[in-house]
User: What shape does this take?
Amino acid sequence: MEKMHLFRRAATVFALGLLVSAPVWGQLEQYKDYREVYRDTVTFEPRSVEVVKDTPLDRHRVVTNAFGRNWFLYGTAGAHSFRGDFSNDGPFKGTISPDFSVGIGKWITPGVALKLEFTKSNSRGYVEKFHLHNGYSYYPYGIGEEMTKPGGGTYKAMQTGWWDLAGLLSLNLTRIIGGYEGTGNKEHMGQWMVNLGIGGVHHTGFEQQYGSDNEWSGHAELQYSQFFNEKKRVSLDLKARAIVYQSNFDLTYGQIEGAAHKFDSNLGLDVGFTFYLDKNRNNGWTHAGSNILQRELREREITIVKVKEAEGKAEHGMITFYVFYPNNYSGRNDAPNIPGATVNAVDYLAGGIFTQKQYSDPDKVADRLSRGASLQGLEFKDIPTERADQDFEIDFIPRGYEMLNDTPLSLSLKAGDMNDFKDKTGYYYAPIYDGLHTWNYRIDDATLRQQLISDENYKETATYGLNAHSGLQTIRDWFDVTGPEELVSFADVYAAINSNKGYISRFADDATVARIRHIINNGEIYMIQVEGTATSQDNFTGPDAKQVGIDRNTALSNNRANTIINWLKGNENMRHAASQIIPNNKCGGIEPVSDKSTRGLDAKMNRRVKVQILYAL
Assistant: This one.
């Protein structure tokens, strides 16, 4: 009993020294035989849970883009036949005229666009004589010599110049029926569209004595567009078009006997090109839908515990370790999302697979891989995480983040590699799509649609073993660790809390694990201090870009810190230890990184949580 009192007294004195800045310490003198220490009481049952229903990514549901996105320019040229009251009086070739159009448009969704189109041409055909009430007669728009029809009667050729300005609604039938195919793939390289609109036409070249210079026009087009490559920035367009007018093109309706057509029309074929203006954005949309978000709100209470003083000394110490994270990942959404299983951020870092997701329907994946089609839009789901202190059945691929010195976490998306994995495991691993890009490592839901500087940054292509014991020398060199604390690795602590067996044992040091376990099981853990850090690598360019970047990265740093606190306090011997997130006074939780790569050592070192466990033994 005396030894226990000696231990408690020494431990209490140590804790007081650490917490001297707390506001209640001025009240300590009123106690003679007791001292106060802060201890956390954490309720591990969720007090409040917010759930967003899982909606698989749907090819027919997308998030609309900003006003400045998805604009295009186009131009066409072709020929049409004018169809009026007397277009059959003469040879068909006499009704053919060239035309050209230019336009600008914006896709509102992948299936619906609005266009403004200018068309200029003339229309040729035939007209019969028009008799006025005063006995005067003439040929409206008639030109050239009078000609006689085979069955009797006379007519002349006619020609009228015009231009038309119209607004059109474009419906992409291929995408409306088949769904949005995503970007950067060979699916929907040819697309069918229907264009419908209304406009106004202005006649030129003749004085309109008995008709109007202006009239309305109706437009209907069937369009086929063939793209040249997967970027889909330029297409060759073929159009069958009809433009319908009032009968003012030949001024005949109701004026000439036998002229019964209420409308005239131009029917033609055109060929042209469309140029999409979104440079380097592939004109893409983000698929609508949400992954499961389940957030546990844990309540932390500070209580005062009276510990009686006694004589004696104890060993004081501080264990320091770092936990390194993939870009845009903190684990804040990795609550239990799978019935009977969990997706746990710490287990993912220790022994996770790729994005920890798999495709729900392997047959659909196999079909698309065989056709070279994109896998975007296919439903996927989380793979439960496994504790890393076991021998994994899937042991032929890299597992865990920054655990291996020579193989990164990201896997190949080539058909052969994916099929080989499926043959061995029974399922296809899945990347995470944001509609524009493909993430090859796990990310937070909140960071899904953040744009990175280069496509390579969506992959993990390098590893330094920073979460393994073998990476400690790199950490010492980088941070210039010279203090008295005991520097250990994340793998060491993980093995000490769970067991030093299986996969994690490859990356932990036996003696270090034994030392940590002895401290946790036999000592008194008084304080867990955690410092989360994110990098300054934010690519947002909208309003208040600087503040948005600060807010994003501050949230990442805090979420990373909370993830580790909650993990450590799940251990029975650390459950009641005091804990606090310490802001980094030098950088405020955001480390400046000049490297544009998220895969370099500079970026990886600064996506971290620094943990200090203070103990008395």
The chain has two domains: 2-57+289-616, 62-285. Residues 122 and 385 are 70 Å apart (CA to CA). The chain has ten helices and 27 strands.
